[in-house]
Amino acid sequence: MADREDKNRENVTGKFYVDSQCIDCDLCRETAPNNFTRSDDEGYSYVYKQPENEEEKAMCREAMEGCPVEAIGDDGED
Ligand code: SF4
Fold first, then answer.
1. Could you give the C-alpha distances from 22 to 12, 19, 58, in angstroms and in order?
2. Could you read off the pLDDT of 67-76 as tens digits, one per residue?
3. Which terminus of the chain has fewer CB atoms gathered within 10 Å of its CB, N or C?
């Protein structure tokens, strides 16, 4: 389960986030490219835009459920 106290620092404020457990597998970026991207410097993913409609929310949830190390959370705030 993702830990909101351990978010990658690049995440934008809001519900979804990626924490430090990310293994850079690319699944979330493929599943929800409007919301997840890669830090090339750090070698992990982060949320660069929170979902703005139902379709994006569904893709973020799918990414969260598919993440092999449960590094994506949906209980984030600022
Ligand atoms: S699916 Fe999970 S492990 Fe894979 S890149 Fe995204 S956050 Fe990282």
1. 16, 6, 20
2. 999 999 999 9
3. C
The closest-lying atom of ligand 1 relative to the alpha carbon of residue 38 is 5
Give tens-digit pLDDT for 20-62.
999 999 999 999 999 999 999 999 999 999 999 999 999 999 9
* Beta-strand runs (E) in the chain: 17-18, 36-39, 44-47, 72-73
Token representation of residue 9: 């620092």
Q: What's the gap in Å between 21 CA and the centre of ligand 1?
A: 8
Q: Look at ligand 1, atom 4, and give the residue with the nearest C-alpha.
A: 25
List, in order of start, the domains of the chain with CATH numbers: 4-73 (3.30.70.20)
